[in-house]
Design goal:
Elements: E1 3-6, H1 20-43, H2 48-61, E2 66-71, E3 77-82, H3 90-98, E4 107-110, E5 123-126, E6 129-132, E7 137-143, E8 146-152, H4 161-176, H5 178-184, E9 185-190, H6 201-212
Length: 217
């Protein structure tokens, strides 16, 4: 269960407060009113029932933010609100996560896409094309405290240009987490043919976490 929605320019979005702290406070006031309905919709396996209301709620924080509903790591569900490393939006996501309630058994909250425990078990369906993340191979070149990567998967050649771009970056985000990927990956390229000297996504995770001084557990 995973879905994203970015507010489109033509959408009629509620006005958001320019003060990030006030906008975050208003968000959480409304969230507490809405969360029973959201939890019920997810429990019924029908997230579409609340998609519009959540999109409007996130737009009150800032209309350029992206959100997703995910399975939680420790809680049952996770709400992710992210600016996709856009520095303009960082004050809003910083204020939002700072004002967030503590996680409980039902909900946890993230201001960037968190890494999945094992990305090699993830399969993404794009129409008739199934992209298994365990089949990705990556060339990683370390330059100081950043890494340049070339990403290869045999199914990428079957995708459209936009899909190919998405499926080049998505495995990196779910492997490293959006924030670590944004901090440590410099150049990201799609390889048309499998290069020599490749590593797996899990090996890339270990490399980047070691570089960043993050425990690889």
């Amino acid at each position: 269960m995973k879905w994203f929605r970015r507010r489109k320019a033509e959408d009629v979005a509620p006005a958001h407060l320019p003060n990030a702290e006030e906008a975050a406070h208003r968000f959480w006031e409304r969230w507490f009113e809405l969360v029973p309905v959201v939890s019920a919709a997810l429990g019924d396996g029908e997230p579409h029932r609340v998609e519009g209301e959540l999109a409007d709620l996130v737009a009150t924080l800032h209309p350029d933010l992206v959100f997703s509903l995910e399975q939680g790591h420790l809680a049952m569900y996770a709400l992710v609100v992210t600016g996709q490393e856009d520095p303009r939006l960082r004050p809003y996501t910083d204020a939002w996560i700072k004002a967030a309630p503590p996680p409980d058994m039902v909900w946890e909250f993230h201001d960037s896409v968190p890494p999945v425990p094992d990305p090699t078990e993830v399969v993404v369906n794009l129409g008739e094309v199934r992209v298994r993340l365990g089949d990705y191979r990556v060339v990683a070149q370390v330059d100081g405290d950043v890494v340049d990567v070339a990403v290869y998967h045999p199914a990428l050649a079957e995708l459209s240009e936009q899909q190919r771009r998405t499926m080049t970056f998505l495995p990196l985000d779910v492997t490293l987490g959006e924030r670590l990927a944004g901090e440590r990956l410099r150049r990201v390229e799609t390889a048309e043919l499998e290069p020599a000297g490749t590593i797996s996504l899990l090996e890339l995770r270990s490399l980047v976490r070691t570089l960043a001084g993050v425990s690889d557990v």
